[in-house]
Amino acid sequence: MAKAEHPSEQEGGAIRRRNEQAILAAAERVFARHGYRGASLQAIAEVAGLPKSNVLYYMGSKRTLYVRLLERMMERWNAMLDDISAEDDPAEVLAAFIRSKMQMSRRHPEGSRLFASEILGGAPFLQEYLRGELRDWVQSRAAVFREWADRGLMDPVDPVWLIFLIWSSTQHYADFEAQVLGITGREALDDDDLEQITAFLTRVVIKGCGVKHPAARGEDPVSLTGR
Amino acid sequence: MAKAEHPSEQEGGAIRRRNEQAILAAAERVFARHGYRGASLQAIAEVAGLPKSNVLYYMGSKRTLYVRLLERMMERWNAMLDDISAEDDPAEVLAAFIRSKMQMSRRHPEGSRLFASEILGGAPFLQEYLRGELRDWVQSRAAVFREWADRGLMDPVDPVWLIFLIWSSTQHYADFEAQVLGITGREALDDDDLEQITAFLTRVVIKGCGVKHPAARGEDPVSLTGR
DNA sequence: GTCAAAGCTGACCATATGGTCAAGAATCAA
DNA sequence: TTGATTCTTGACCATATGGTCAGCTTTGAC
Is A74 exposed, middle or buried (0-12, 13-18, 19+ CB in 10 A)? Predict the structure, then answer.
């Protein structure tokens, strides 16, 4: 019978692992580009360099393949978002927050677009996650932000809108890559561009929310270190 | 023969106009939700309350229907983005910019999502527009922002990243509506929420970019009027 | 009322879709 | 070598896709 409960666990032989990886990578690209309905198993199979039957053999169905990709992406999210507490330095936390979200857009652009496509389509598969886990996560961070505001470490802005601001402005560089490249006239954004954008966003958010350093509370609203 | 060169011009009888409107509205919804490939004429026809043949009769093909929707959306964009000059008040211009973009997300959420879907898919139909018209528009605004920075009216931030910041953070409330609603636990965002978000974004951007009022250049970095 | 133009739509077509299956090929522990 | 397990894949199926078309009805100017 079955060996493990978690299908996402790495199991099976080397062949299986290799083929599954190829299929997952191909599927992420195709789903991201065309959405769930618009993606075809034929196209995924071609990108993966396998016959369509083989894709079905490993993944069972289009639906389970798609769900598996979403779950993998959510794992990446969860791995990124470590804990914070009200004792931490707001500027550092916000900077780290922006940086890690920006790196997510950089390292997993297809995954980011897959996620965006799912939400754009009304989040038919992620409703539960959004209203559950993710909501709790946001609420807990919001509570920390509020405490910072109460302590005078930052302006009393609405924490949820702030989180959305950071999410959107970083996610943008994955989801709207085609627009960014078209307008800037580049072939691709390099590490230097990303570093610049990260610095810009960090600066605007920290300064815009009046974040102060806990030690020197009086002034010096922005330190803005490159790293 | 043909009567006009511009197919987007309103022409034809009342019946045509009415049916075309119904089809365009339905198609915008379906395309926004499922992308170009994922949308089916059958689904569009059902939403419009017409037989599939009738959709083809008016629109010719799926492709032309889609292109027509994109063109309509680009017209809305162009209508929104009026001219600015370096003589204007930076704070006012940025505030108006954010406000109008926010209203676009509010008034045309389906259109915004349609646009997002197109970009997400690599902008196969909008490459020309992005690298041409829109790029010119961005460059001209960027020049104004730079002049403001030179005059000391705002920090010397990269104007293009600033424009992307405003675009993404406002567009977010249309494209990621499902996420926003799921996390906030609401059924919909009302006018009051939107007003609050607009004020928040305006505040963060203006303060975050160190925008000063031209008259009182010394201090008062944020006036933050509700309207 | 006449009649051409516009509107309407079910039947139809070639193709593509997600998915099944059976039968063979490769792998590997014993 | 054996035998069981895993892997591979072309043939096949029901359905859905975008699009065509012929023939019908409705509309509106005269």
Answer: middle
pLDDT digits (tens, 9 = 90+) for A154-169: 999 999 999 999 999 9
Q: Give the separation between CA A185 and CA A210, rounded to whole angstroms.
A: 34
Distance in angstroms: CA A54, C1' D4: 21
| Closest chain A C-alpha to B97 CA, distance in angstroms | 16
Give chain C positions with protein CB within 7 A: 6-11, 16-22, 27-28
Q: CA B189, B195, B197 angle in degrees (round to 5)?
A: 75
Side-chain half-sphere exposure of A102, counting CA atoms within 13 A:
23
As a whole number, the mean pLDDT across chain B is 90
DSSP string, B31-46: HHHHHHHH--HHHHHH
Q: Tell me the C-alpha to C-alpha distance, in Å, between residue B170 and each of A121, A166, A168, B176, B217.
A: 18, 12, 8, 10, 28
Q: What is the mean pLDDT of residues B55-73?
A: 98
Instruction: Tell me the two tokens of residue B176.
Output: 């990621």
| Contact status, residue A98 vs residue A201, Cβ threshold 8 Å | yes
Q: How far apart (Å, rounded) are the C-alpha atoms in residues B143 and B179?
A: 35
Percentage of chain B beyond pLDDT 90 is 83
pLDDT tens column, B67-88: 999 999 999 998 886 789 999 9
Which of chain B's residues have a Cβ under 8 Å away from the Cβ of A33?
120-122
Q: Helices B177-184 and A109-120, interaxial angle, to 10°?
A: 80
Single-letter amino acid code for the residue at B42: Q
In order of start, what are the domains of chain A with their CATH numbers? 14-69 (1.10.10.60), 81-208 (1.10.357.10)
Summarised one tens digit per residue, pLDDT across range B166-187 is 999 999 999 999 999 999 999 9
Two tokens at A12?
């099976």
Cβ pair A171, A178 in contact under 8 A: no
Q: Is B185 helix (H, G, I), strand (E, B) or coil?
A: coil
CA B143, distance to chain mean position in Å, is 21
| DSSP codes, B50-90 | S-HHHHHHHHSSHHHHHHHHHHHHHHHHHHH-----TTS-H
Q: DSSP letter at A134?
A: I
Confidence of residue B11 (pLDDT cuts 50, 70, 90): low
